[in-house]
Amino acid sequence: MNTDRTEGDEPGVSTTRKTFRLLEALRDEDGISITELTRRTGLTKSTVYRHLKTLTDLGYVIERDDRYYIGYRFLEISEQARSRKTGYTVAKRKVFELGQETDERAVFIAEEDDEAVYLHRYGSLSETMIGKRRPLHSLAAGKAILAAWDDERVADFVDRNGLESITDRTITDPEALAAELETIRERGYAVNNQEHMDGLRGVAVPVYTPEDELLGALSVFGPTSRLKDEYVHEKLPSLLQDKAGEIKVTLAYR
Hints:
Layout: H1 11-27, H2 34-41, H3 45-58, E1 61-64, E2 67-70, H4 73-82, H5 86-102, E3 105-112, E4 115-122, H6 126-129, E5 133-135, H7 140-148, H8 151-161, H9 174-187, E6 190-193, E7 200-208, E8 214-223, H10 229-252
Antiparallel strand pairs: 1-2, 3-4, 3-8, 4-5, 6-7, 7-8
């Protein structure tokens, strides 16, 4: 009996699931052996070997000294995703400018499948964050995106996902979230006060195309020791709004 196959899957679907299970394990490790992959994924050793052989032949996985790594060929795919919309490329420059001007970490985040996805980041470990997914409701950028949605869409989002507690400051009550989003709409920016990570505060604004399509959100965040109230509520919002406006104008004249 084949224990690798997920019950109910067609053969092709089962094969695809196993491929991605392996890739996700490879992503999480800086080099991993077949034995370790077998233990990590629960697949048989022969199955792991067959999949790795195919992925290696295609250039998506490389093998060095009996250990396997994600190959650079995935960069072609990931870069296409990050440049799928022209605005994403323009946002990359603005993230760099924000980081340079504030000397803090800056990000551009887009929403996909009810999650915040890091497309661009400036600061320490910036490249390791690209593609990472986080809950929308715990990030300043995520809340800026949620505030751009109408109430019905937000309610559907909460019904599908709930409001997980990430820290003891995360908003977990739907009514409290609704009130927070209304405040964000009124003042034009979102604030994260240690809701995703203790000791970190962030500010974010939504980014729109010239056709008023929501593109994503720009955010600057840093330690609470530097991001004091005056800086968070006075300087950063206007700076972020200026950059968001520049993205919109740049796209309008392209």
